[in-house]
Amino acid sequence: MQEKTSLELLSEKISGILEKFETLKEENESLRNELTTLKAEREIKDQEIEKLIDLNAQKDQEIEEIVNKIESMLD
Questions:
Q1: How far apart are CA 68 and CA 75, in angstroms?
Q2: CA atoms of 41 and 46, how far apart (whole Å)
Q3: Which end of the chain offers a freer environment for a tag, N or C, measured as fewer CB atoms within 10 Å?
């Protein structure tokens, strides 16, 4: 059996590191894309929540006005 030289071993290790680096780089890009998508979805949901909060405040005001009218009719 032929032993590998130090240069061959080093070359194999460097190749392995480069493969791992490329894999991690691709995974990182994928995670960045997912993060961008999630941030956009969160922004849309935040806007929807804000609309619902405003609508709820309007409804509360309408209820308050109705209650006031009923109370004034009963007095």
A1: 11
A2: 9
A3: N
65-to-51, 54, 62, 73 alpha-carbon distances in Å = 21, 17, 5, 12
Give the type of residue at 73: M
Helix (H, G, I), strand (E, B) or coil at 4: coil
Token pair listed for 13:
């290790």
How far apart are alpha carbons 46 and 40 in whole angstroms?
10
**How sure is the predictor about 4, in pLDDT bands with cuts at 50, 70 and 90?**
confident
Q: Give Cα separations from 36 to 19, 28, 29, 47, 56 (angstroms).
A: 26, 12, 11, 17, 30
Entry pTM: 0.66
